[in-house]
């Protein structure tokens, strides 16, 4: 067993296990500890690069040892700027398993909240899109984290938020109960209805973003429980309240509350849908969005949404000449904004999707980009084409019930067992109503007819493994 050296002892807090001697690495200090491991800082001698090495606190049995090795295998496969990189793994001379990670010198989100206070709305949205992208990549690789929280989001040397500690990650279809942190865990995990899945990760990421804005996890912030039992009771039986910050817009509050819904079926279908909802809030607030960074996935939302934001952002500020002229100028600016936005949306979004029929009560809808084939020849790699979920085809709408409703139907170009369909109404701005998206088993949906304009919906295919169509199909019916 390695002996404690004088230099090592000088760096060791009382009660900390002896850091292992690892060939090619020089011990620097302690970074932190968890329930089953310590994390030490080492210097890789060949490169003079600092790394973080997670070392088990005890000799692990075969099952626990396999779990620790599984973490290294999963993490090494998940190559993403917002997932902490794994450099290697092994077993120490005294039988303790270890994993070598990228060193994140800027601490965790938890540390930053404690030292600097809550995050801005803009930074929270930026982090949210990046982390949801990383989470979607993990879920697409059949890996769930199961313990996302502020202490597991580290800030890299490049200033990027990165998901760390996939120590309880497991196959997405393995629903056995496993470890979790109550403040961040969804009700179904706390109630032992399963160990968690991708929708549980979405909940925990939303709770983490909530804490970035509120300073605490949702139920700690809202109800100030004094014990774990009180906290668990709140999570199981009380609603998540809005964040009491004047600068947190209602659009962001709605996105977080949907992701924190106690019923997993009412949350976002995938982490990608969560990322898209956060991007849409960014576009509404700032006219731009953080890109989704996943191979084979479009980095930004629909072009219609971006065009709408661009039109809004392109409007010059109205100069205020004299007090008596302020009201006419404001009215003029509003009229111009409405006309510009409607013109962009109508020309780029609604008009190309409408094919009027001779019958005033029906309208056939032509799907954008569809020529009778579900695929498109855009030069994507074969691997991406094999794994991507196609969009629905033959989407059309027909007015029914005395023109009070529109019945939409569509086809699945590649039906598979367990396929379902996610659809949402589309507003005049060209955006899908993410907060009220519906999930159906059959390729049809009947919606109330829109007064004074076309009725539009957006539809995606949802696979049994929770993958969603890369590009949703949007179409409209008009009288």
TrEMBL record:
It comes from the Bacteria. ATP binds at residue 54. Residues 365-389 are annotated as: Disordered. This is non-specific serine/threonine protein kinase. Its EC number is 2.7.11.1. The keyword Nucleus does not apply. InterPro entries: Kinase-like_dom_sf (IPR011009), Prot_kinase_dom (IPR000719), Protein_kinase_ATP_BS (IPR017441). Keywords: ATP-binding, Kinase, Membrane, Nucleotide-binding, Serine/threonine-protein kinase, Transferase, Transmembrane, Transmembrane helix.
């Amino acid at each position: 067993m390695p002996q404690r050296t004088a230099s090592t002892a000088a760096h060791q807090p009382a009660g900390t296990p002896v850091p292992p001697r690892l060939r090619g690495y020089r011990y620097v200090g302690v970074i932190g500890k968890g329930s089953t491991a310590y994390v030490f800082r080492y210097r890789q001698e060949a490169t003079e690069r600092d790394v973080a090495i997670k070392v088990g606190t005890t000799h692990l049995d075969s099952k626990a040892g396999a779990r620790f090795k599984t973490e290294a295998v999963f993490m090494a496969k998940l190559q993403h700027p917002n997932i902490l990189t794994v450099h290697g793994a092994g077993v120490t001379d005294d039988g303790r398993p270890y994993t070598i990670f990228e060193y994140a010198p800027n601490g965790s989100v938890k540390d930053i909240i404690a030292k600097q206070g809550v995050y801005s709305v803009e930074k929270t949205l930026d982090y949210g899109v990046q982390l949801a992208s990383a989470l979607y990549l993990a879920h697409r690789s059949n890996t769930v984290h199961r313990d996302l929280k502020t202490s597991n989001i580290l800030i890299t040397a490049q200033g990027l938020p990165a998901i760390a500690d996939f120590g309880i990650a497991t196959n997405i279809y393995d629903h056995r109960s496993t470890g979790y942190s109550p403040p961040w865990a969804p009700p179904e995990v706390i109630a032992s209805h399963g160990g968690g899945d991708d929708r549980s990760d979405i909940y925990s990421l939303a709770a983490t973003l909530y804490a970035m804005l509120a300073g605490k996890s949702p139920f700690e912030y809202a109800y100030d429980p004094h014990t774990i039992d009180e906290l668990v009771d709140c999570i199981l039986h009380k609603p998540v309240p809005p964040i009491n910050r004047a600068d947190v817009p209602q659009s962001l509050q709605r996105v977080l509350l949907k992701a924190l819904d106690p019923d997993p079926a009412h949350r976002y279908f995938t982490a990608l849908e969560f990322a898209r909802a956060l991007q849409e809030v960014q576009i509404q607030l700032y006219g731009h969005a953080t890109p989704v960074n996943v191979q084979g996935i479009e980095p930004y939302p629909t072009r219609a949404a971006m065009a709408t934001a661009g039109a809004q952002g392109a409007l010059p500020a109205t100069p205020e000449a004299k007090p008596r002229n302020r009201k006419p100028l404001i009215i003029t600016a509003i009229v111009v904004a409405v006309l510009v936005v409607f013109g962009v949306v109508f020309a780029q979004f609604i008009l190309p999707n409408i094919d009027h029929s001779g019958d005033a009560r029906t309208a056939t809808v032509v799907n954008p980009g569809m020529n009778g084939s579900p695929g498109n020849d855009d030069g994507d790699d074969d691997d991406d084409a094999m794994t991507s979920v196609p969009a629905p085809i033959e989407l059309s709408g027909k007015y029914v019930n005395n023109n009070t409703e529109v019945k939409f139907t569509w086809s699945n170009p590649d039906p598979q067992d367990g396929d379902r369909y996610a659809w949402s109404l589309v507003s005049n701005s060209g955006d899908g109503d993410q907060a009220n998206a519906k999930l159906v088993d059959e390729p049809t949906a009947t919606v109330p007819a829109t007064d004074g304009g076309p009725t539009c919906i957006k539809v995606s295919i949802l696979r049994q493994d929770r993958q969603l169509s890369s590009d949703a199909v949007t179409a409209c019916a008009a009288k």
